[in-house]
Amino acid sequence: MTDKPLVNRVASSGLITINLEDFFPKEELVVFDLKDYLFKELILKEKDFRTALKEHDWSQYEEKNVAIHCSTDAIVPVWAYMLVTAYVEPFANDIFQGDAEAFYKVAFSKVLANLDAAQYEQKRIVIKGCSNKPVPPAAYVELTRKLRPYAQSIMYGEPCSTVPIFKRPRVIKK
Predict the structure, then answer these.
(1) What CA–CA distance (Å, rounded) separates 37 from 174?
(2) Cα separation of 94 and 91, whole Å?
(3) Which of 34, 116, 135, 148 gives the lowest tally of CB atoms within 10 Å of its CB?
């Protein structure tokens, strides 16, 4: 048996790991479902709707992200979304029309739009997989799209077990 020191080859490989969970919204997301305010979950009665919103405790949305949507197949007028927004705006961190999945797609799109991909010029990137939060596939697509013009290579997974996604061809010098 030899006394060679253990070497962490992953740490010395020069791989840069990007974990999309690091870009996940910090504030809690609350879904405000309009179906709960519809007559038989199908019909919006304006007077009843306005009364219910007036009596609702809006302070529960303090510093939270709010996604407003209707989970039933009802015809909801646009002004209903606007009215909910008017009530929740003084409390909410962010307000979005759509379900949770659509909210996260847009949230990641906003964050990744500000990512300076040029900092990864000629770098070997691993986009971490297996997240504990609902990172949408669209975020992985957008990150790959932004990195591809710059990165030497892009892989998906964990540094010890990756799936190759993109590798820049070597330039042969003459």
Answers:
(1) 72
(2) 9
(3) 116
Cα angle at 98 between 95 and 104, to 5 degrees?
75
| Contact (Cβ atoms closer than 8 angstroms) between residue 154 and residue 125 | yes
pLDDT in tens, the chain (174 residues): 556 654 444 444 589 999 999 999 999 999 999 999 998 888 999 999 999 999 999 999 999 999 999 999 998 999 999 999 999 999 999 999 999 999 999 999 999 999 999 999 999 999 998 888 999 999 999 999 999 999 999 999 987 889 999 998 887 777
Whole-number Å distance between alpha carbons of 92 and 109: 20
Residue 172 DSSP class: P
Domain boundaries, the chain: 15-25+107-167, 29-92
